[in-house]
Design goal:
mainly alpha; about 160 residues; CF(0); ATP synthesis; ATP_synth_b/b'su_bac/chlpt; ion transport
Length: about 160
């Protein structure tokens, strides 16, 4: 055989192999590669979309946290104001009750003072009558009267 004929035959076999490969083998390989590339592109797009959604979700969470913190601060302020108001109201009630108790005690003390004065007046009147009886029962004598008056003073 001649080298040229062998080379020519090998070129024909190679051309048939290239045609067969391009016709039957290459299209499924390129289709599989294109599908894989599309899946990768879709995955990257989904990842970008997920990143954007995550960023939006983080923003919303931060906004809600800020809103919740503000509302909590407001509620705590309202609660503190209410607590102060309750304490002030209790203090006022206690002061009013204390004033009532003091007023009642003063009135009771004044009544006792009045009763003591009345009792003292009755005792003084009784002593005066007793002293007058003793003076009238005895004879009129200045020294005797002075002695009786001295005893009367000590009894008062």
């Amino acid at each position: 055989m001649n080298i040229n004929a062998t080379l020519f035959l090998q070129a024909i076999v190679f051309a048939v192999l290239v045609w067969f490969t391009m016709r039957f083998v290459w299209p499924p390989i390129t289709k599989a590669l294109d599908e894989r590339a599309q899946k990768i592109a879709d995955g990257l797009a989904a990842a970008d979309k997920a990143k954007a959604e995550l960023a939006n979700a983080n923003k919303k969470v931060d906004e809600q946290l800020a809103q919740t913190r503000g509302e909590t601060t407001r509620l705590l302020g309202d609660a503190e104001k209410r607590a102060v108001a309750i304490v002030e109201e209790a203090k006022k009630r206690a002061e009013d009750e204390g004033a009532k108790i003091v007023a009642a005690a003063k009135a009771e003390a004044e009544q006792q003072v009045v009763r003591a004065r009345e009792a003292l007046r009755e005792q003084v009147a009784a002593l005066a009558v007793k002293g007058a009886e003793q003076i009238l029962q005895r004879e009129v004598n200045a020294s005797v009267h002075a002695e009786l008056l001295g005893r009367l003073k000590t009894e008062l």
